[in-house]
Amino acid sequence: MDNSSARKYFYQEIQQPDEYIDLARAALYIAQEEYPNLDVEEYLNALDAMAAELEERLPPQRYPLRIIQSINQYIYEDLRFTGNKIDYYDPRNSFLNDVIDRRLGIPISLALVYIEVARRIDFPMVGIGMPGHFLIRPDIPEMEIFVDAFNDGEIMFPQDCQEKLAQMYQYPVSIQPEFLAGVTKKQFLARMLTNLKYIYLSQQELEKALAIVERVLLLFPDLALELRDRGLLCYQLGRFSQAANDLETYLDITPEAQDAYIIKRLLTKLGRY
């Protein structure tokens, strides 16, 4: 399969209403641009098989905490999924096929495996876009139990989340309600893609970074910073017409942006300002 087909399938998947988007399928279409021969159905079947095995191990009384404990034992003890703390910025940590094959991932990709297995046993969970560290929780109203998929399914409460934030930022942090709010499926995919974008930028893989930004813009076409980044990447890659169009749009949307002066200078070089 060529990259354009994978991109087309990704676009078709995300055009559905958010609740109907298949997160795993969309994530595998993201991976398919990196691995053109990837068999999406094979990995969806692998998730089905995991859920079928887990179903046989569930307790008769399906209280949420007991289900979470069963999922944790299966994913982390039996299958030996774990967070890749040694090579956190390996791009493979963000591709669902690699995560399933290698049993290694980062918070959001391990959360995806957890969510997809849980969904298949009729225990829906939702992603929580906490700053700096992605979590999940049961999709049950008023239930403030969070699961850290990166750390062997550690069960956390709001106070634990606040302590983790303080630990990450090295100063006291007041937990805000939006820190523990659920994310939509499109937001989930955008966060996965953004992780990959920064990895590719740090590695100077500009073509790959551009491909990632283009997919974020398929999800959210009006994101000003992504339009800017696409323009800057196109400029670096010598695609000056596209660069100028994106950078002009960025200034139209955010005329008071802190980097407006720099963008204007670039547009002057491109003969547009």
Automatic annotation (TrEMBL):
<dbReference type="InterPro" id="IPR032698">
    <property type="entry name" value="SirB1_N"/>
</dbReference>
<dbReference type="Pfam" id="PF13369">
    <property type="entry name" value="Transglut_core2"/>
</dbReference>
<feature type="domain" description="Protein SirB1 N-terminal">
    <location>
        <begin position="42"/>
        <end position="193"/>
    </location>
</feature>
<keyword id="KW-0802">TPR repeat</keyword>
<dbReference type="InterPro" id="IPR019734">
    <property type="entry name" value="TPR_rpt"/>
</dbReference>
<comment type="similarity">
    <text>Belongs to the UPF0162 family.</text>
</comment>
<dbReference type="Pfam" id="PF13371">
    <property type="entry name" value="TPR_9"/>
</dbReference>
<protein>
    <recommendedName>
        <fullName>Protein SirB1 N-terminal domain-containing protein</fullName>
    </recommendedName>
</protein>
<dbReference type="InterPro" id="IPR011990">
    <property type="entry name" value="TPR-like_helical_dom_sf"/>
</dbReference>
<feature type="repeat" description="TPR">
    <location>
        <begin position="190"/>
        <end position="223"/>
    </location>
</feature>
